[in-house]
Amino acid sequence: MTVTVSASGLGLRYGSTHALxxxxxxxxxxxxxxxGPNGAGKTTLLRVLATAVPADRGAFTVLGxxxxxxxxxxxxxxxxxxxxxxxxxxxxxxxxxFVDYVAILKELTDRAARxxxxxxxxxxxxxxxxxxxRIRKLSGGMRQRVxxxxxxxxxxxxxxxxxxxxxxxxxxxxxxxxxxxRAGEDRTVLLSTHQTEDVAMLCHRVLVMAGGxxxxxxxxxxxxxxxxxxxxxxxxxxxxxxxxxRTGDGGFRNIGDPPEGASLLAPTLEDGYLLTxxxxxxxxxx
Amino acid sequence: xxxxIPALVVPVWRTLxxxxxxxxxxxxxxxxxxxRLFGSAPGAWFALGQLRAAALAFALGLAFLLDDPxxxxxxxxxxxxxxxxxxxxxxxxxVAALWWTAALLLVPGPDRPPAGDVTLEAGTACALALAAAxxxxxxxxxxxxxxxxxxxxxxTGVLAPLLVPDRWALFVAPQDPRWAAAHERWAWLLAGxxxxxxxxxxxxxxRRSARPRPGPHGS
Lengths: 286, 219
Description:
The complex is a heterodimer.
Chain A lengths: L2 E12 L2 E12 L1 E6 L6 H8 L7 E6 L7 H9 L1 E4 L11 H11 L5 H14 L15 H13 L5 E5 L7 H15 L3 E5 L3 H7 L2 E6 L2 E6 L1 H6 L5 E4 L8 E4 L5 E4 L7 E2 L4 H9 L3 H5 L1
Chain B lengths: L3 H12 L2 H20 L6 H19 L8 H4 L6 H26 L8 H25 L6 H18 L15 H23 L18
């Protein structure tokens, strides 16, 4: 499959902190998940790829557009849909008015065609019934879907979604996943999340970030396979484990190098993710 | 781009901080109109002070012009930041001109300072507010650059008359022999603020120097 997003050696420093440290990646059509602990650099990477913040070093292209030049950046933005981590709204706008405003900013100037496109994305985000209601009167989940509709408007070829399912109830999350899965059928979608279930259900590929670097790049099955034979249960906390946590049945689930005769468990994507973080596990399991 | 700007006029007009601007404008008009309400003549020096205070009040409101709760989501769009900021300024400029005319007319004719010179002062205050807000937009990720910009302007407005040395005096009376020289300095200040504003409109091609405000989860 054709590479749609290609980055090499991306770096961004804030003082002495490397928010991004030599990040290279190649994305193809479909949904790619981006996992990582807080402070891993996920949001920074997404913001760089969305041209919301420029990198210090490195280069990247999206659908053949290079943002190093003003013209390339503008072309890239024409092909981009971006849902930020904390989307904000003009509260007196209705979903229709807000998405229409974003559509104008995306240079959809023909009024009739634009309104048709706005209605289409609002329907896709399951907001058709509330399109005339003020945004300030909508629930958090609905607002999140307004932000998704704004990202989808103009049929962008590259969709960047920063923790879109955070704070949603299970039903809302399910609806969101459906929209994202549909979007990934014919676009490149980069989805940052803390929810390994999102990745397991949506993504054909997953990246794990920590300390501003990519620690893993592969399929969800490959990430899960990293934990094969490295997950076991025990009655008490196993001091030899890299990480362990109490489960609902009063026992412990451990990951790392199991002791001889340990009762091995089937690994999950989360186990593989935690083992990939390795050095960062202390923070995760503290 | 030519087709985008007319389409943006109405939605951008609706996103302007009209309540803040209205409050600032009302405070300014109240400052200049209060003596007239009580039927007293303020005197030339007092009237000049009133107009300066009114201009500062309005400029403080103008510092909030670029506050945009939707900034994070609308940052990476093909319509450039400079165009959007310039449109906001263009939409508010006629309102500001009308407001200033009203403020000037509220001061009785005999007490009114030279309109051109005092308008230069007011224009400079507004340009400084816009330059500060635009610079804050360029250097930070804050969707609300108005607060730091207004604070900086207020501190400058209060401290400048106290700290600026006599030979660079800006806040002088019309009968003061330094009036003309002071307004030459005001003109330079206006040009400087305008230059900072224009230079801040663009998006930096590569490096940013300020740390973005961290989100609730990510980095």
